[in-house]
Known about the structure:
The structure is a single chain. The chain is mainly alpha-helical. The protein has one domain. It contains four helices and two strands, in the order ββαααα. The protein has a two-stranded antiparallel sheet with strand order 1-2. Strand 1 (7-8) and strand 2 form a beta hairpin. Helix 1 packs antiparallel against helix 2 (58-79), helix 2 (58-79) packs antiparallel against helix 3 (85-103) and helix 3 (85-103) crosses helix 4. The longest helix has 31 residues, at 19-49. The radius of gyration is 17 Å and the shape is elongated. 24% of the residues are buried.
Amino acid sequence: xxxxxxxxxxxxxxxxxxxxxxxxxxxxxxxxxxxxxxxxxxxxxxxxxxxxxxxxxxxxxxxxxxxxxxxxxxxxxxxxxxxxxxxxxxxxxxxxxxxxxxxxxxxxxxxxxxxxxxxxxxxxxxxxxxxxxxxxxxxx
Length: 140
């Protein structure tokens, strides 16, 4: 390994790619992951109950999907040496969820969901990164 960049805790100080690209790609992947987890929960409920309506299990399954998406998003951002990975992943997923539930809940089963949610999540990860940076500067 070359000594061009100092290592900190097993990773390099600077992200290996442009930060905005990392945020956008991880946001896209988190959006696809969220869609996949919700779809899998729905399919599981369909197999168990005979209907895609999960009933009382719906909310815990949604919370589980959100937690898994945040954790995996934070891990990806951390591995790519992004600052504030947990905060950015949490805020990015939370903002996406608020927008989807607030404005897109009537169209969740549209084919456009496969495009809109990942793009929206990429944007919310970028916004979350800006907010985390401003919080850090305000704290200093």
